[in-house]
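Project outcomes to date are best conveyed with an example. Our students and postdoctoral researchers have been running inverse folding experiments weekly, and each run begins with a structure described purely in tokens. The record below, which covers 180 residues, was selected by the lab manager from last quarter's runs and is presented without edits.
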């Protein structure tokens, strides 16, 4: 039986993120993009959106390019991955995060789902780690609890305007309240 394009995306992401770990853990990084894809699948998103979720960090954190993704999965997937990626990594944390928040007002509904699933999985991981580590969790981040809270609450406010009332936005709200 041939692989589906979702299988191809999982394989590409696994190879691209090989050897990477989740922040300050021993958890293989691929668990994050895979989980993002599964959240999108559970939300009933199209195959292109699920694939974009699986590949959402490849342009930002690996040698995979937007052109590579477009050649393998098409223009729509490449655009969604690009929309979910942070710009220039040489910018400050605040500039990159503000760009993401501001960019949501222009992003398509599909891109908002990818971004929301990414942040939802990040928050769920943070909540789980907070339950084990308590306040020491915040030492993992260049910016502490207050700036993380600002970022996630700002994202939520933007996402509530773009994809209001969706189960994914409701889940994001729950996780933000648990963590902060």
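After processing, the design step wrote out the following sequence:
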């Amino acid at each position: 039986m041939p692989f589906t394009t979702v299988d191809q995306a999982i394989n590409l992401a696994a190879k691209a993120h090989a050897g990477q770990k989740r922040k300050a853990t021993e958890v293989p990084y691929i668990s994050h993009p895979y989980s993002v894809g599964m959240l999108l699948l559970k939300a009933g998103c199209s195959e292109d959106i699920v694939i974009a979720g699986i590949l959402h960090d490849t342009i930002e954190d690996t040698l995979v390019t937007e052109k590579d993704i477009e050649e393998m999965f098409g223009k729509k997937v490449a655009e969604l991955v690009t929309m979910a990626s942070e710009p220039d990594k040489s910018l400050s944390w605040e500039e990159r995060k503000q760009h993401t928040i501001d960019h949501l007002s222009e992003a398509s509904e599909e891109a908002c789902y990818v971004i929301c699933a990414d942040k939802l999985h990040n928050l769920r991981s943070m909540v789980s780690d907070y339950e084990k580590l308590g306040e020491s969790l915040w030492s993992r981040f260049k910016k502490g609890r207050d700036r993380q809270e600002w970022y996630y609450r700002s994202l939520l406010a933007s996402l509530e305007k773009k994809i209001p009332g969706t189960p994914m936005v409701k889940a994001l709200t729950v996780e933000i309240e648990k963590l902060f």
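The chain has ten helices and no strands. The mean pLDDT is 95. The training component of this project remains on track.
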